[in-house]
């Protein structure tokens, strides 16, 4: 997925004025696929995201015996008897590497699971230990990381388990999503520093309940009863985290961007953009046309705890570098285990353009300074491409390395970006 050519991030010629329709949510699409694979009948997944992360999930489920077929813009999923032998490639998708192994443990046969070199470094051990305690046989050579083999026996006992999910909420979501199919369901208790990404855990619970599962929650506690998973129709919302760079463009250029189809109620963390961009000085309005963000001229930095919405950090950091006052983004130590060490990558790339960013133990401090053009490295991280594009609106001469890596969640990004700038 790498290319040696860079992408010249376009400078905004003036205030943007655009409506940007966004493809489906990665997080909802990959949860919908897992639940559909475990259901007792077919599911129509409406308006799913088609990107590297979701195509890898679809391929992984097909390898286990699930039928995932295009039906126009939708996906029709027909569950089958889960079976190995199978080889699964998770790429660099956290959702695939954490949601698929519990499903593999329900299969009959061996499932080998591997991914990109960086995926082998992302937090995984607590999930493997938990699965082992719940009755799975996994051979990971003692590494607690990819690659590993799940020796599925056609079912899993389940029951109570304690896990340290401070490295990633997905370690919990993975256990919960497959749990209706465990013989005893599951009771997951978290022990350790705080679990990040609370909205994503709420999304897991909401989507399980919508599929008919019985879920109880407490503080750092989730209980899913054993029982059937219903098929039917699951509509995927637009990806609100992928709205960040487009709405941010309104702020940077003093323009206006509308995202149609913004849900009135949602568990997506991107919904927090409304408050975050407003506190930077944007005017945010909700109407029949969608969510509109208007930049009113200059904009200020923020002091924000992003623990719940960590995936918004790269774009917010780019905005912070262009703001009128300093920013502190905290609660995000776990971003060191994302697609790349995002704290280190953002500091390195902002400072290479003349910026003043530094790492905090759990975040970033960014002081706006005049920036210059240069090559912006993206570390196989889709959100580094998005951050670079935001900077490029105001800073001439930014050349984005390996722009294709944005296809992890938004393959049409450069087209959408150019169309937004053209109005
Ligand atoms: O469950 C999910 O769909 C996600 C959870 C979050 O992971 P972490 O809790 O590891 O940050 C988020 O950053 C990721 O983009 C998607
Ligand atoms: C952290 C992210 O992805 P993943 O699902 O791979 O964890 C992200 O999309 O910002």
Automatic annotation (TrEMBL):
It catalyses: 3-phosphoshikimate + phosphoenolpyruvate = 5-O-(1-carboxyvinyl)-3-phosphoshikimate + phosphate. GO terms for biological process: amino acid biosynthetic process; aromatic amino acid family biosynthetic process; chorismate biosynthetic process. It comes from the Bacteria. Phosphoenolpyruvate binds at residues 26, 94, 122, 170, 342, 383, 408. It is found in: Cytoplasm. Its EC number is 2.5.1.19. Pathway: Metabolic intermediate biosynthesis; chorismate biosynthesis; chorismate from D-erythrose 4-phosphate and phosphoenolpyruvate: step 6/7. The keyword Amino-acid biosynthesis applies. Residues 14-414 form the Enolpyruvate transferase domain. InterPro entries: Enolpyruvate_Tfrase_dom, Enolpyruvate_Tfrase_sf, EPSP_synthase, EPSP_synthase_CS, RNA3'P_cycl/enolpyr_Trfase_a/b. It is an enzyme of class 2 (transferase). Monomer. This is 3-phosphoshikimate 1-carboxyvinyltransferase. It comes from Actinomadura craniellae.
């Amino acid at each position: 997925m790498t290319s040696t050519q860079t992408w010249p991030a376009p400078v905004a010629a003036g205030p943007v004025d655009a409506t940007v329709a966004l493809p489906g949510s990665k997080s909802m699409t990959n949860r919908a696929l897992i639940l559909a694979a475990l259901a007792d009948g077919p599911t129509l997944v409406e308006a799913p995201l088609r990107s590297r992360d979701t195509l890898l999930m679809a391929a992984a489920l097909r390898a286990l015996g699930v039928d995932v077929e295009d039906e126009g813009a939708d996906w029709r999923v027909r569950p089958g008897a889960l079976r190995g032998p199978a080889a699964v490639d998770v790429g660099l998708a956290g959702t695939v590497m954490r949601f698929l192994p519990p499903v593999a443990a329900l299969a009959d046969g061996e499932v080998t699971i591997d991914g990109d070199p960086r995926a082998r470094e992302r937090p995984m051990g607590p999930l493997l230990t938990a699965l082992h305690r719940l009755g799975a046989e996994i051979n990971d050579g003692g590494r607690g990381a990819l690659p590993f083999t799940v020796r599925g026996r056609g079912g899993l006992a389940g029951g109570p388990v304690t896990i340290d999910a401070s490295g990633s909420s997905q370690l919990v979501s993975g256990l919960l999503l497959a749990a209706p199919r465990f013989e005893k369901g599951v009771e997951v208790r978290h022990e350790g520093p705080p679990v990040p990404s609370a909205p994503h855990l709420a999304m897991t619970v909401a989507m399980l309940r919508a599929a008919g599962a019985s879920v109880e929650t407490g503080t750092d506690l989730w209980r899913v009863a054993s029982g059937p998973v219903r098929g039917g129709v699951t509509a995927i919302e637009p990806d609100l985290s992928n709205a960040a760079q487009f709405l941010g463009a309104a702020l940077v250029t003093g323009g206006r961007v509308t995202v149609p189809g913004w849900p009135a109620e949602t568990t997506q963390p991107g919904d927090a953009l409304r408050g975050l961009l407003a506190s930077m000085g944007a005017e945010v309005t909700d109407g029949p046309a969608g969510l509109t963000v208007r930049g009113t001229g200059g904009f200020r930095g923020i002091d924000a705890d992003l623990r719940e919405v960590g995936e918004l950090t790269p774009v917010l950091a780019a905005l912070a570098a262009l703001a009128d006052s300093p920013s502190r983004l905290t609660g995000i130590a776990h971003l060191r285990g994302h697609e790349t060490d995002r704290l280190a990558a953002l500091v390195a790339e902002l400072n290479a353009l003349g910026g003043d960013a530094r790492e905090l133990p759990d975040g970033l401090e960014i002081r706006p300074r005049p920036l210059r053009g240069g090559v912006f490295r993206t570390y196989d991280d889709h959100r580094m491409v998005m951050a670079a594009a935001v900077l490029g609106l105001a800073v001439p001469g930014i050349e984005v390395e390996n722009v294709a890596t944005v296809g992890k969640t938004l393959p049409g990004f450069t087209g959408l970006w150019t169309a937004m700038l053209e109005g």
